[in-house]
Amino acid sequence: MDNSKRTVVVTGFEPFGEHTINASWVAVQELKKLGLGKDIDLHVYEVPVEYQAVQSLVPSLWNQYHPQLVVHVGVSGMATTVTLEKCGRNHGYKGLDNSRFCPHSQCCIEGGPDCIDSVIDMESVCKRVTASGLGVAVSVSKDAGRYLCDFTYYTSLYLSRGRSAFVHVPPIGKPYNEVDLGRALQAIVQEMLDLLDQAEGKIHCQHVH
């Protein structure tokens, strides 16, 4: 195995409700075609819209790949921009999933903090991607919606101590096509990796002195 390569895992979701084609998984497959450059080993997964599946899948991705970063992508019928989520929330999961289940506790991790922020500065990612002239509008949000998206994000943030990200995409054609969304994801993930590198560079510098 080439140790100079870094691993990134990106997930999308299966269809649910009125989203008979889930734009998140379409966008992630498009990203896989584009890749993240030769130094990044990119793995993509389609996540079931089921709380119990998420509870087993997310830890297994971290354990199997020890990724530098995990980015979860979901669809939002209300979104008109590609939206970077700053944090995941632990409580308030009342919506039934694709197997008609919701957690009895209505929370992700019993005893976990109410809210966990990503270590990635989403405002910074948003500014950089916007400035790159991609032609896809990007915004930042503090509420991932208390359904499987938020549930997955919180679980991942908890396991990774914040080294996760979540991106909401609008449905296909409202207004962006799959190629636009794939390009947007590529730009976003590359900026996230750059920011992580800078943060780690600063940590190493502090150790040296």
From TrEMBL:
GO terms for biological process: proteolysis. It is an enzyme of class 3 (hydrolase). It comes from the Eukaryota. InterPro entries: Peptidase_C15, Peptidase_C15-like, Peptidase_C15-like_sf, PGPEP1_Cys_AS, PGPEP1_Glu_AS. Its main location: cytoplasm. It catalyses: Release of an N-terminal pyroglutamyl group from a polypeptide, the second amino acid generally not being Pro. GO terms for molecular function: pyroglutamyl-peptidase activity. The active site is at 85, 149. It is found in: Cytoplasm. Pfam families: Peptidase_C15. Its EC number is 3.4.19.3. Keywords: Cytoplasm, Hydrolase, Protease, Thiol protease. One of its GO terms (cellular component) is cytosol. Removes 5-oxoproline from various penultimate amino acid residues except L-proline. PANTHER family: PROTEASE FAMILY C15 PYROGLUTAMYL-PEPTIDASE I-RELATED, PYROGLUTAMYL-PEPTIDASE I. Belongs to the peptidase C15 family. Monomer. This is Pyroglutamyl-peptidase I. It comes from Esox lucius (Northern pike). The lineage of its organism: Eukaryota, Metazoa, Chordata, Craniata, Vertebrata.
